[in-house]
Write a structure and sequence with these properties.
Elements: H1 3-8, H2 12-26, E1 35-37, E2 63-69, H3 73-84, E3 90-93, H4 102-105, H5 117-120, H6 124-127, H7 138-151, E4 164-170, E5 175-180, E6 185-193, E7 202-204, E8 215-218, H8 224-227, E9 242-246, H9 250-262, E10 265-270, E11 276-277, H10 286-291, H11 296-308, H12 321-335, H13 343-368, H14 372-377, E12 390-391, H15 395-398, E13 404-408, E14 416-417, E15 421-424, E16 427-430, E17 433-436, H16 446-450, E18 453-455, H17 462-465, E19 484-486, H18 498-518, E20 524-526, H19 528-542, H20 546-551, H21 576-590, E21 596-598
Helix pairs in contact: 3-7, 3-18, 12-13, 18-21
The structure holds NADPH dihydro-nicotinamide-adenine-dinucleotide phosphate.
Length: 599
């Protein structure tokens, strides 16, 4: 063992080699193509199981000022910030039967947010709401989404159970025409798109997937009629069922403990283990609540965002697993007199701190899991941010139960599905039900993921405009697509706390529309030059992260192991969210709507 090993408690070279070996096992030629789109014979996987009453209404051909597509936090925030700015006549369009977005669809047992609720939930001071716990349940988040909608009067004019099928700019009237699956052809002066980055469920393209005769569903359309119980668990109809769950990402981590409690036997089919750290939930402390001063919410969100984006803050207000990871990494680097280190030395230190963190995660597995072979299979061997880190206190102990079998496919994934069940490692597992915890489309085309095409000036489609990669100004405006705003993280600031980024974008949109109205302008769009300059910036900054992504085990963060195939344009603003929000703020302060053309 080298001297460095003794000091660190691990051998960096050995770990590096192990990570490479684990990644190489998982690299596959088909990348994103390994998954099946939920259309055609698989369409039922996206049907809404939660609708209580099917909506009947006449097609709409009316006009609104602003149509907002998506009733999740992005749409709600846009609506809220526009209302605050005194801009009326808004219509929200949502395919679900209620507000909630992600939290409308993901109602699986155990669904909860593992980012602290006091920073994750937007508009807490505006609505006066205080979450009951540090990590709030999914059902409460959905209820809170509705509270936001009521508070800002966003139920007025809303179209639920309505799927947009096409958005087209009509040059002759300078309006967007929005067509839907209800034969609507509504007109809108502005359209704001907040479709959700992970809204389209995907299935693994496993041979035989269409031959299975048992029951199946995707976690984002949970079938409680079949399982019994509710989001709190109690899946009492599974007592005589052999259940298989495919996937071990953040969703599986939350629902597996409940499936294990309900099922006669649970088989968990694992391709890559997640990293599981402590969550340590606790009720909201009322003394703390009473001590809060106005402005506390933004301060806390900013503090969290700074720490999880590699910045420095005097205090760590959230102080949980998310911020600890980053704190450790940075302090390790700082202790080494960071300022005197070259970029390369800095990266090396970061790598060591990452190894150390992941060693801690792996040791935790050994401490919890009684069978050493199972423990070994549950250990993640990759850098912490190659995949989304998970925080859960009941997931790992589940594998100590007699009625739970971990089927570790050692990176290969499930081989086949038969009429009776799942084949992995050459063995067939007969199952009554398969739950697909296989995630959502990320690396596919934007319009495919939205479920509709957008046509701008001259009938150019967004798919055509983006055929060589995404093109935007500030991630939000697109040249040739006037009066259209996109909320999301492509070419924008990405943060683990996604609603925070949406809030910044929503405020920005409200500012721009207010400015237009004040100046009596009718149409705004990015100039081709501003768009090109932003694309160039995104590409230049994206290169910084290339090697890290290439060394990672495959997943949706690195385009399923093919980061080089994803256009460098289709990524986030490389200097991180703190810098990105500052770009927007400085731009507003500068005034004059630079880079936008008004008419
Ligand atoms: P993921 O994409 O993270 O996970 C999909 C899982 O399916 C992976 O474990 C993947 O393995 C596995 N898989 C795919 N194909 C196969 C196959 N052929 N055989 C075996 N396994 C397979 O989706 P999730 O729904 O878990 O999570 C999506 C995102 O939603 C998260 O990353 C997170 O951002 C968010 N989320 C947030 C929560 C929160 O608390 N805030 C809670 C839940 C989700 P492999 O890793 O090898 O590709």
């Amino acid at each position: 063992m080298a001297e460095a090993t003794t000091e660190l408690g691990f051998d960096p070279d050995a770990l590096r080699a192990k990570y490479r070996q684990e990644r190489d096992k998982r690299l596959r030629d088909d990348g994103n193509e390994q998954y099946i789109e939920v259309t055609g014979q698989f369409k039922h996987y996206v049907e809404d199981p939660y609708v209580e009453e099917a909506l009947e209404r006449q097609p709409l051909t009316d006009e609104v000022d602003i149509a907002i597509i998506g009733g999740g936090f992005g749409g709600l925030l846009a609506g809220a910030r526009l209302r605050e700015a005194g801009i009326g006549n808004i219509r929200m369009i949502e395919k679900g039967a209620e507000f909630g977005g992600t939290w409308y669809w993901n109602r699986y047992p155990g669904a909860a947010c593992d980012i602290e609720s006091y920073v994750y939930l937007p508009l807490l001071e505006e609505t006066g709401y205080m979450p009951p716990k540090k990590y709030i349940d999914g059902a409460d988040i959905m209820a809170y989404s509705q509270q936001i909608a009521r508070h800002f009067n966003l139920y007025e004019n809303v179209c639920f159970q309505t799927e947009v099928t096409e958005v087209r700019w009509d040059e002759s009237i300078s309006r967007w025409i929005i067509r839907t699956n209800r034969d609507d052809a509504m007109r809108a002066r502005f359209v704001i798109m907040s479709n959700g980055p992970l809204n389209r469920p995907k299935l693994p393209g496993i041979p035989g997937i269409d031959s299975y005769k048992g029951h199946t569903f995707h976690t984002s359309r949970w079938d409680y009629d079949y399982t019994g119980g509710n989001a709190n668990g109690g899946l009492d109809r599974l007592g005589d069922k052999r259940v298989g769950v495919i996937g071990t990402g953040a969703t599986a981590v939350q629902c597996v403990p409940h499936l294990a409690e309900g099922a006669q036997h649970l088989y968990v089919f694992q391709r890559t283990p997640s990293s599981i750290d402590e969550r340590n939930d606790r009720p909201t402390d009322h003394e703390w609540v009473n001590s809060l001063e106005p402005g506390w919410h933004q301060e806390r969100m900013d503090n969290f965002n700074t720490l999880v984006s590699g910045g420095f803050a005097e205090k760590d207000l959230v102080n949980d697993g998310w911020t600890e990871i980053i704190r450790n990494l940075l302090f390790m680097v700082q202790l080494e007199k960071g300022s005197e280190l070259t970029q390369e030395q800095l990266a090396e230190k970061m790598e060591l701190a990452d190894f150390q963190k992941m060693e801690q995660i792996r040791t935790r597995v050994d401490k919890i899991i009684s069978d050493p072979a199972v423990a070994e299979s549950l250990k993640p061997y990759y850098r912490q941010f190659c995949k989304r880190p998970c925080f859960h206190d009941d997931y790992l102990p589940t594998f100590n139960r007699d009625n739970v079998t971990l089927v570790n496919t050692d990176g290969r994934g499930v081989e086949r599905i038969t009429e009776k069940g799942v084949v992995a490692n050459g063995e067939e597992y007969e199952l009554d039900c398969i739950v697909f915890a296989t995630g959502f489309e990320v690396g596919t085309g934007y319009s495919r993921r939205c479920g509709f095409e957008t046509y701008g000036r001259g009938g150019e489609s967004l798919t055509e405009h983006w055929s060589d990669g995404a093109r935007t100004f500030h991630g939000m405006h697109i040249a040739g697509f006037p009066n259209c705003f996109q909320l999301g993280h492509v070419q924008s600031g990405f943060t683990a706390n996604y609603p925070h980024a949406l809030n910044e974008q929503a405020q920005h949109v409200a500012y721009i529309i207010s400015q237009l109205n004040a100046g009596n302008h009718k149409v705004v769009e990015a100039s081709a030059d501003a768009e090109q300059a932003w694309v160039d910036t995104i590409i230049k900054l994206a290169r910084v992260n290339e090697k890290f992504q290439a060394d990672c085990t495959p997943g949706y963060y690195n385009n399923e192991g093919k980061p080089e195939e994803r256009s460098l344009q289709d990524t986030n603003y490389g200097l991180g969210p703190v810098a990105f929000f500052k770009v927007l703020e400085d731009w507003r302060e500068e005034g004059g709507l630079q880079g936008l053309e008004l008419s």
